[in-house]
């Protein structure tokens, strides 16, 4: 029998996505499956500005987290590491930025 890894934010979500929020910002959204999944993802003791900053190499003061309980959504924004479409931009649409967030293990019950 194959061993399964820890439960991640992706496991709790219908979708985890990232996109540009203009040429200077990235926005990521967690669309959680239900109220319990939202409660876990929205818990500031688990997912806060410091956690996002550590995942993405940005300053905690630059991270903005929006918790939207009526939609079971957590939205996160922070400055892009490089300006969109600049010489060193490897993800022009920020379409792959969500992966570290999606793979973040959630605390066990």
Radius of gyration over C-alpha positions, nearest whole angstrom: 14 Å
Give the strand order of the largest sheet, numbering strands 1, 2, ... along the chain: 1-2-4-3
> What percent of residues are in strands?
25-35%
| Overall pLDDT metric | 88
Helix content: 10-25%
- Total number of β-strand segments? 4
Unreliable spans are: none
Largest sheet: 4 strands, antiparallel
Shape call: globular
Topology as H/E string?
HEEHHEEH
Structure annotation, total helices: 4
- The chain-level structural class is alpha+beta
First-residue to last-residue Cα separation: 23 Å
Please write out the topology.
Elements: H1 9-12, E1 13-20, E2 25-32, H2 35-42, H3 49-56, E3 64-68, E4 73-79, H4 99-102
Antiparallel strand pairs: 1-2, 2-4, 3-4
